[in-house]
Amino acid sequence: MSAVDTNLGADFGAGLSADDFKLAFRNHAAGVAVITADVGDGPVAMTATSVFSVSAEPPLLVFSISDMSSSTPTIEQAKTVVVHLLEAEQYPLAKLGATHGVDRFADTTQWTRLPTGEVVFPAAHAWIRGEIVQRTRAGQSILVTVHALEAKLPDPADAAAPLVYYNRQWHALTEQSRLG
Amino acid sequence: MSAVDTNLGADFGAGLSADDFKLAFRNHAAGVAVITADVGDGPVAMTATSVFSVSAEPPLLVFSISDMSSSTPTIEQAKTVVVHLLEAEQYPLAKLGATHGVDRFADTTQWTRLPTGEVVFPAAHAWIRGEIVQRTRAGQSILVTVHALEAKLPDPADAAAPLVYYNRQWHALTEQSRLG
Predict the structure, then answer these.
(1) A5-64 residue pLDDT tens
(2) Are strands B126-138 and B80-85 parallel, antiparallel or unpaired?
(3) Which of A96, A134, B77, B79 is 20 to 30 A from B159 (CA-CA)?
(4) Nearest Cβ partner of B125 from A27, A30, A53?
């Protein structure tokens, strides 16, 4: 598959300014994931707040990668990725994947490789290994669609406290944050 | 533009089961939006937890619509949509857009039309009006990419309490849910 299958990068008329667009999204929260990939020249890991489930059958998820991310060139070339869906406990991992200029794999006790070769962080309560089935250029980012192949599932008995990000802050959802 | 520009609906090898895929995503939270559209035969409104910002310049956002949603045939044909990004206060609106078999526009005091014709719910703290620039079939859903044209921006002076959804429950993010 080519690095980008379809292109939506160029010709738009006048739209909302970048500042207004960011402000409109200021209060929109998102779940947090760390995505890993490796094309043979060393693994990459990036924190993403754009992961969502698109279809359960076939099982497809989507995320976007910005041209500004150091992990993007690798994810552009990768055949497979691992998407770690994080709980509040894994907040240090989320911060690691969002910190510039550090070796995100320096602590070799924190990660391992699957039999299929991909890098995983076992601390994550849930992860999905999948094949990239489409890449779509969209402005300064690429939308990546992934077909889920394999997963580590969360323990249904565990009390869940999902990790959430908004407006540059990290939050944990608990019974206290629940409405109604 | 055709209803669906690119197709990713069919041929995948064996993947994760639908049940396991849903379980993996169980603890993944999402911000909440209500999307409205109208192609001339009456407005539709649907609650979506798949909205994310893809690119600020040009300003592009993405969401997905399931084949099972009653609003999908209209959004498939629409040229423009309004994406309302909700705070906890607008929780009744989110429930309205997620309730089957009700007339979501019965209370005519809750909505109005923009000069450009689209339906908006003014109670939302922020909304974005945009043009649909791409539709991509992905399994049982369609990925919709929107170029933002106009917005109602949140008041930066307002204390924000974003509305979040996970595992069939609604949550509000506040200072109490903050980590670190």
Answers:
(1) 666 656 788 899 999 999 999 889 999 999 999 999 999 999 999 999 999 999 999 999
(2) antiparallel
(3) A96
(4) A27
Helices (H), ranges, chain B = 18-24, 72-77, 91-96
Q: How far is A42 from chain B (nearest CA, A)?
A: 26
The per-residue pLDDT for range B117-166, each reduced to its tens digit, is 999 999 999 999 999 999 999 999 999 999 999 999 988 777 779 999 99
Reduced to 3 states (helix: H, G, I; strand: E, B; else coil), residue A71 is coil
- Chain A residues whose CB is inside 8 A of the B8 CB are 60, 133-134, 145
Q: Which residues of A touch B150 (CB under 8 A)?
A: 16
Instruction: Map out the domains of chain A with their CATH numbers.
Output: 26-170 (2.30.110.10)
pTM: 0.93
Predicted ipTM > 0.85 = yes
Taking an 8 Å cut-off on Cβ atoms, the answer to whether A133 and B49 are in contact is no
